[in-house]
Structure formats: C-alpha cells, structure tokens
Amino acid sequence: MMMNSTSIVYLIALPLAGAVILLLAGRRSDKWGHLLATALCASSFFVGLYQLSLMFNRPSQERPVSQKLFEWISVGTFKIDAGLLLDQLSICFVLLITGVGTLIHIYSISYMAHDPHRRRFFAFLNLFIAAMLLLVLGDSYLNLYVGWEGVGLASYLLIGFWNEKPAYATASKKAFVMNRIGDMGLSFAIMIAFATMGTVSFIGVQAAVEQTSTPVLTGIGIMLLVAAIGKSAQFPLQAWLGDAMAGPTPVSALIHAATMVTAGVYLITRSNFIFDAAPTAQLLVVIVGAITLMFGALIGTAKDDIKKALAASTMSQIGYMILCAGLGPVGYAFAIMHLLTHGFFKAGMFLGAGSVMHGMNDEVNMRKYGALRKAMPITFVTFGLGYLAILGIPPFAGFYSKDMIIETAFNAGGSKGIILGIVTLLGAGITAFYMTRVMILTFTGTPRWDEKAQPHESPWLMWLPMAVLAIGSATSGYLLSSNDSLVKWLSPLFESHEEHHELLPPIIVSALALVMVAIGVAIAFLKYSRREIDAVAPKNVSIFTRIAREDLMQDRLNEAVFMRPGQELTKTLVKTDAVIIDGAVRAVGRLTIATGLSLRRVQNGFVRSYAAFILMGALAMIVAIWVVVQ
Amino acid sequence: MDAANYLYLSALLFTIGAVGVVVRRNAIVVFMCIELMLNAANLSFVTFSRINGDLNGQVVAFFTMVVAACEVVVGLAIIVTIYRSRRSASVDDASLLRR
Question: Residue A169 needs a FRET pair 20 to 30 A away by CA distance; which of A143, A201, B4, B68 works?
C-alpha cells in the first residue's frame, strides 16, 4: 500500500492561486503581480525540494506517495478520485518545471518590464506551471488529461500573448488545433483503457495489462503515441512548433523547449507497462522519434530566425527522447536524463536568444546579428555553454545524455540497432552543424546590424537565470550520470533490464559521436566563418535549402492533404445542409401554406354552404356510426 | 298504427327542412326550415317516448320547444337588424366576415 501525503497538493495549489489572484485582481495587481507570481512559483519549487528530501530518506520501495483530493466521478461502479501521485519520475519533472519555471519567472520580470500586460503574462505563466504540475502529478490518465488540456490552454494563451498581431493569433490557433489531434488520441486511449480494463488509474492499468490482449494494448499504445506526437511536436504533427515561436521568448524557453513539449516523453515513460507489452506500438514510437530527430535537424540547418532554429532543434532533441523511450526499459531512464539536461541547455539558449533580441530591438533574423560577442559577453558565455552541452562535448551535459541515447540505439540489436545508431549519429552531426551556424551568425564575424541597433548586455535579472541554467547545462549531465544515479533512482518504476546486446563498447560510441560532431562543426566553419554572410537570405539556393526553409513542406502537405479536402468537405456539408435538410424543412412549410391556401376557399362567407357542410358532416357521422354498429 | 311511421314522417320533415336551409336564400324561409327540422326532431323524441313507454322523450321535446322559442326571438332580431342595414333578407348578402 502506498503511503499517503497531504502536502503534494501545495505544489499545484501555490501557482494556481497565483494565477487566480492575478486574473481576478486585474489592474490593481499590476504593481506587485509579477513578484507574487515569481514568489509562488519559487515556493512551489521549495515544496518540491522538501518532497525530494522526504523521498530520499525512505527506502526505494516506499518512495512513491499519493494524495486523494476528492471523489471526482462516481457513477455506479465507475469511480474516479481526483488524486495525486508523486514518485521518482514525477519528482524529476516537478523540480524541472518549478526550477526552470522560477528562473524564467525571474527573467520575465525584466524581459517583459515594458509590456503593459505584464501581469496577465505572469498569470498565464503561473497557470501553465499549475497545469503542468497537475499533468505530471495526476495518478490516473484522466487526471493527467486535465493537466494535458490545461497546458494546451496556457500554451495557446501565451503563444497568442501579443495577439494584436494577426499572424501571432493565427500561430496560437494553429498550435491549439494541431494539439487537438493529439488530445483526441489521448482521449481515445483513455476510452479504450476504460472499456477493456475498467480503470484509468496508472496502478489499475498496470495491474490489468497482463489480462489484456495484445491488440488492445497496441491500440492504446498507438493512441498514446498520437497524443505524444501532438504535444511534443513530433512527425507528422510538428508543424505548429515553429510558429509557436510567436510567443514571448520566455514562453518559448519554458513551454516550447523545457517542459510542455516534453510531456509526450513523460506520457510514454509513464505508460511504460503498456508499451513494453505492445511491441508494435513501441516500434512505432522509435520510428516517429527517428524521423523527427532527422526532420528537426534538417529544418534547423536552414532557418535564419534564431528562435525558429532553436525550435527545430527542440523538435530534433525531443525526437531523441521519444526514440529512446521507444527502446523499452533500457531507454526510459536515458530519455528522462536527456529531457532534464535538455531542459537546462535549451531553456538557457532560448533565454540567451531572448537576451540577444532584447539588445537588438527584437530582431530575430540571425543574418542581421554578427559580432555580438563583444557587446554581450555574458549572453555569449551562457549561450556558449548551452551550445557545448547540446553538441555533446565532454564534460557538458549533452555528452552524457545524448551519448547514452546513441549507445542504447546501437545496442537495440539487429538491423534496427544499426539503423537507429546511424540515424542518431547523423543527427548529432547535423545538430553540431546548425548550432555552430547559429553561434557563428550571432556572435562572431562582422556586424550586420540595422542602423538603429544598439546591442547591449541585458540587466542582471535577465542574465542571472541564464547563468544558473548555463551552470546546469555544464554540470547536470555529470551529476545525473555519475554512479548511474538517475538510472538507479528511476529503476524501481520500470521493469528490470533485459540482457544487454553489446554491439559497440561505450568508448567507441563516444568517439564516433565526437567525430560526427567535429565534422558538423568543421563544415559549419568552412561554410559560414570564412566568407561574408549576406544580410539578406540569398534567393538562388538549391532546392534542398528551399525545402528546408519551408519546414520540409510540412505546411504545404498539411494544406494539400488535410486543409483543402477539409474545406471541400465542409462546403459539401454546408450545401447538403442547405439543399437537403433545409429543403425538407422548407418543403413542409410550403406544403402547409399551399394546403391552407386551398382550404381557405371553403370559407366563402355563404351561410348556406356552411349549412350544407354541417349537413354532410352529420350525414357522414351517421353513416360512420351505422357502419361501426353493423 | 305503427310507431315507425312517425319516424318516417320525422325523417321526411327533417330532410325537407335541411334541403330548405341549403337551397333557399331568404332568411325568413331558412329560419322556418330550421324550425321544421327542430320540430321533426321533436316528433322523433315523442315517438321514441311512446315506443319506450317513458316520459324522457316528452320532457326533451318541451326543452327543445323552449330553446326554439328563444332561438326564434334572437334569430328574428338578427334578421330584422340585417334587413335594416343592408335592405335585403338574403343570407348570401350577409358575407361581411369573409374577409
């Protein structure tokens, strides 16, 4: 029996209270709203630390704790409590969300200082933190679903925060609509689970997996994968993430890099018992991850918008995590490890990008940057640490987490292992290429600034969080992987490791990865560092560059395959409605009117004809009675 | 004398009255035809009273006479009024409610 706790709920309640207070108090809280929101997020982080210390002091089997909030749904035998579950997996997420969240709150105080709606921004940020915590703390798929929708809402609100620009409002709508497809997958998974297993709680489903047939589990697994694809911007639902960069940069850092988009990885890891029992679904997970990691990396090579380049990189890195989570029990812990380190370095780099934009009048085009190293030394150093981390240079974070993924991919066994290994290695090389490109275009070379640009370092409220995240980028990999600490910490949640196929020894994998990274960096240097960069993107480029600039045609594909036929379908339905449904209704009306008009003639005003009618009626009645009596 | 003959007579009188109401235009004649129908009904009431050997039919006949008397008063008043305003006693002319 799991231990009960009464203090988990504070994790969610604190930021939720912040959101409620700020939204209800309105303009009255303009002066202190951002401080309250930051304080509440930070206190939620400290509650998380307290929970972690409690958890450390318990033996590993007693570490998970639960809390029942209230009886939510009780219909006949169907009972669902609103309950929370804090175990080794969710505490990792809690600390990531509240920790990075607090840093980004602090950063936003300064970044959004001149925005008239800063209070609303902080209210939405707090709402997001609360929803995301509910997502990772819910003890059943249904509770998770509430948080899942909550983060979708917060993401929508924050992407469209500057919705006075129609393009931004459209971007938020696009993100919301594409996320709905994933949400539909999650709701189907919940329905299938309830219909076949009669329960939707994690513990209940885990217990019921053994008695459930493989096709059903595969169905649930695929639906969960669809959910993960939508939320984590994986192929083929990845098109929304690039446009989501319309939101303020702290939002991109928190929601679209560190936390929300990794919810898909959480979902797959949390549902490990389903995927372990459904090999087909698991294979699909790996395929989706592999495709996305290449897809994102290729898009990243062609983007001139610094935030979109980072977004493509996020897509690609989450592809790594999904791939790794699809490799089964050996992979889950490494997926989570990459998720945590990625949370540090990608959030750090996004904040760095925000700092650059802050100094450059919100210019996002990297072709108009150049030589910012001198003007923004702190941003350069913190961004550079994130850069080294994502490349996987030892001893920075990415070296530990990404190498583990590449190694696990190679060791997956058979031709699958070799293909995945090569894909992940190639991905590492391309990552090195496009990240080096970002570094060169932004920080080195000659200035290509607009005349009005006055690049300057950001205030300390902004660079402090960047520095903390940069330290995390540098050290988190080592901390999490020394003595396999994260793997051991998470191991009670997953089935024990199967026998290990050892295709390549770790040292060779690391060497291969470093060689790939070196090649990527070298190509980027040759291409961008040795000659002048055009301030305007060149037009006469190869077809491949053009395709990559257009997100590998995904928007066009969506438009041709889904939007146009969808519009046609809608038009047909409208026409059907107008002609058949409305036609039937109108025909009934016309018939009634015509009948009335013809019957009106009977009312001719002649008393004698009325009398004749009465007589005939009476006679007809008599005849009828006579017939009946006979 | 067979009681059925009275019923035949009643039916005959009623038919004459009904046909008169439908074919004649003069309000006074129509009125008289209505009276004829009422009295035909009265005759059949009385006949049934005789056949069944009780007084119910007779009583109803008295009621009918009373109602008919009232109806004559009201009806004649209406006819006179219409005649005064329209200078005609034709029922076909009294068709103002048609529109």
Answer: A143
Q: Is B7 on the interface with A (CB under 8 A)?
A: no
Same domain (yes/no): A620, A582: yes
Question: Does residue A12 have a pLDDT over 60?
Answer: yes
Q: Evaluate if residue A499 carries a pLDDT over 60.
A: no
Q: Taking a C-beta distance cutoff of 8 angstroms, is the pair A396, A314 a contact?
A: no
Q: What is the residue range of A581's domain?
A: 570-629
Sheet (strand A65-75) strand order? A3-4, A65-75, A78-86
Q: Biggest alpha carbon distance in chain A?
A: 115
Q: How many independent structural domains does chain A possess?
A: 2
Q: Average the pLDDT over A77-89 and give the result.
A: 84
Q: Which residues of A touch B93 (CB under 8 A)?
A: none
- Name every chain B residue with its beta carbon within 8 A of the beta carbon of A603: 98
Q: Which 3 state secondary structure label does DSSP give A305?
A: strand
Are A516 and A606 contained in the same domain?
A: no
Query: Is A89 within the bounds of a domain?
Result: no
| Max Cα-Cα span within chain B | 54
| Cα separation, A407 vs A570, whole angstroms | 49
In a domain, A550, yes or no: no
Of A603, A605, A608, the CB nearest to B21: A608
Tell me what the mean pLDDT of segment B9-31 comes to. Answer: 91
Residue A493 pLDDT greater than 70, yes or no: yes
Q: Are residues A590 and A513 in the same domain?
A: no
Contact A129/A99 with Cβ under 8 angstroms?
no
Please check whether residues A332 and A375 belong to one and the same domain.
Answer: yes
SS3 string of A384-400?
HHHHHHHHCCCCCHHHH
Q: Are residues A535 and A575 in the same domain?
A: no
- The dihedrals phi and psi of A247, each to the nearest 5 degrees, come to -70, 165
Q: Which residues of A touch B22 (CB under 8 A)?
A: 608, 611-612, 615
A294 inside domain: yes
- Tell me, what's the pLDDT at A134? 92
Residues 6+ apart with CB under 8 A from A394: A510, A514
In this prediction the pTM is 0.78
Tokens at A440, concatenated: 């060169």
pLDDT of A568: 92
Q: Is B18 on the interface with A (CB under 8 A)?
A: yes
> Same domain, yes or no, for A445 and A518?
yes
